[in-house]
Specification:
About 25% of the residues lie in helices and about 30% in strands. With about 525 residues, it is an alpha+beta fold. It folds into three domains: about 190 residues, Rossmann fold, CATH 3.40.50.300; about 100 residues, P-loop containing nucleotide triphosphate hydrolases (Rossmann fold); about 140 residues, 2-Layer Sandwich (Alpha-Beta Plaits), CATH 3.30.70.3280. Strands 28-25-27-26-30-31-29-32 form an eight-stranded antiparallel sheet. Strands 2-3-1-4-5-11-6 form a seven-stranded mixed sheet, with helices on both faces. It has a six-stranded antiparallel sheet with strand order 17-16-22-13-14-21. Helix 2 packs across helix 10.
């Protein structure tokens, strides 16, 4: 191996690209902030529950996110700690934004699953876990809010094991829960993390002890010392030992108890990610999977975001680098069009803040400013062909027509709808008959976000009215079969923004009926960028 190849391999090996997934209100945004704080990326964290300006988490920058205190878009944040480069992708917590979350999970090598100690495994957690399982994404579990009343630790671990069919390996153990909480005991390092003396809910010093039989435990854990000894011994004997290969294979999840709000377990989580989480992995592509150690630069666009800086009307494509050493100013070829794109101003992210990326390696996420050239699902290569797979658009579950309050702003409306369709926020369909565009989304909250952004970013006041259609499917077949179908169902035909044929169904019964009548045509609920 040459010196250059060795240096590049070292850069790849020190990167950890991970997403944080959870059910809404489990504390994901707070944990994101505290990871950035502990990682040195920020110097002060605004609490999500605070009022006014402090209510905004630094990673939630969209107006509707600030108003509701929720995450509805994926943010990317890069920071470095003790020689490890962390690329953190904060995913939407709300289930209506499952498409954005799914595509974000294509860009990571591991995930942190946040679970509320009082609620355990919730519906959205289970859905996101299944997406991770489809892609063999290894997961570290962070059981949050142990300083509040919650379920018994054994109950929580058993629920994870039974519901998700995972082995669990606890890395630490709480000394009491809720009002009885006295700190966390590190099962591997034999350390005890206490609250400070001024407030039993604030994280304080970490002390080394010789083990559970150390008399210092009686002082540190107080009245919870006996329970801690009993439970920790049972946990060590009753649950699987930490096996890094099993974890990376997706069969075992290391578990960390903590409180993001009160800074318990956050440093342990960063340490676990650095020590256990995989460095960049091969990415699925045709004609062959792309090795992160490969010399040529390759990557794929998993997200496009418009108007991150509304004053500049910008559009940023988020590119996950899959291989090679990227250098500012180099040209990459867009596989879908064959165009050479000069990347002169690539950026690294911290939420809204950015800095120019002079170089980047496999696992890094860089932003590419562009004006509608790059789309979700695009593959970029330095020389040899490589088309990345598994980054689809999804058929919408809600279809609506858009009604303008001011008909003179139809041009601005079309621009706005096209922009957001290119981001993957919505689907956009042009019916074969009629002039009104039809917008498709997965969930109701997406419609609220769409209206909010139309007004805030494009100064377009609009509302929605019912569409005669309930769902849509992309049509795949021979030209002759597609023409025969379109001739018979002209009133239900549309095109997406790429001109691909789409069948608009009035309900599931009609979809099933028509599907049965045309077996030569595939009615697809997903479509990938060519």
């Amino acid at each position: 191996m040459t010196a250059t190849a060795t240096a590049m391999a070292g850069e790849v090996a020190r990167r950890r690209t991970f997403a944080i997934i959870s059910h809404p209100d489990a504390g994901k945004t707070t944990l994101t902030e505290k990871l950035l704080l502990v990682g040195g990326a920020i110097h002060a964290a605004g609490e999500v529950r605070a009022r006014g300006q402090n209510r905004r988490a630094r990673s939630d920058w969209m107006k509707i996110e600030q108003a509701r205190g929720i995450s509805v878009t994926s943010s990317v944040m890069t920071f470095e700690k003790e020689g490890t480069v962390f690329n953190l992708l904060d995913t939407p917590g709300h289930e209506d934004f499952s498409e954005d979350t799914y595509r974000t999970l294509t860009a990571v090598d591991s995930a942190v699953m946040v679970i509320d100690a009082a609620k355990g495994i919730e519906a959205q957690t289970r859905k996101l876990f299944e997406v991770c399982r489809l892609r063999d994404v290894p997961i570290i579990t962070f059981i949050n809010k142990v300083d509040r009343e919650g379920k018994d630790p054994f109950e929580l671990l058993d629920e994870i094991a039974d519901t998700l069919a995972l082995d669990v390996a606890p890395l630490n153990w709480p000394a009491g829960m809720g009002g009885e909480f006295r700190g966390l005991y590190d099962l591997k390092q034999r350390r005890f993390h206490s609250p400070d003396g001024s407030d039993s809910r604030l994280a304080g010093p970490v002390e080394q002890v010789s083990g559970l039989d150390d008399p210092r435990i009686d002082v540190l854990a107080g009245p919870m010392a006996g329970r801690l000894r009993e439970q920790a011994e049972l946990a060590e004997g009753g649950y699987a030992a930490l096996d890094i290969d099993q974890y990376r294979a997706g069969a075992l999840t290391p578990v960390i108890f903590g409180s993001a709000l009160k800074d318990f377990g956050v440093a342990d989580l960063i340490a676990a990610l650095a020590a256990l989480a995989p460095s960049p992995r091969p990415q699925p592509a045709v004609p062959a999977a792309v090795d992160p150690a490969g010399a040529q630069v390759t990557g794929f666009v998993f997200k496009v975001q418009a108007n991150m800086n509304p004053q500049h009307r910008d559009r940023i494509a988020f590119l996950r680098l899959a291989s090679g050493r990227f250098r500012r100013g180099m040209k990459l070829r867009q596989m879908a069009t064959g165009k050479q794109i000069a990347i002169n101003s690539p950026i690294f992210f911290f939420a809204q803040d950015r800095e120019i990326a002079e170089e980047a390696f496999a696992g890094d996420i860089i932003g590419i400013p562009n004006h509608g050239v790059l789309r979700v699902g695009d593959s970029l290569v330095e020389k040899d062909d490589a088309s990345f797979t598994g980054i689809p658009n999804f058929a919408p579950e809600i279809l609506r027509r858009v009604k303008l309050d001011d008909p003179t702003k139809s041009k601005q409306l079309k621009t706005a709808l096209t922009d957001m369709a290119e981001e993957g926020v919505t689907q956009l369909f042009k019916p074969a008959i009629g002039s009104q565009w039809i917008v498709g989304v997965v969930g109701q909250l997406q419609l609220e976000v769409l209206i909010s952004r139309l007004e805030a970013e494009y100064r377009v006041a609009a509302s929605f009215e019912p569409s005669p259609f309930e769902t849509a499917r992309w049509l795949i077949g021979t030209p002759a079969d597609l023409k025969a179908f379109a001739d018979e169902h002209r009133g239900a035909m549309a095109e997406d923004r790429d001109g691909a044929p789409v069948f608009m169904a009035r309900d599931s019964w009609e979809l099933n009926f028509v599907t049965g009548r045309f077996p030569a045509i595939r009615f697809s609920a997903t479509r990938e960028r060519a």
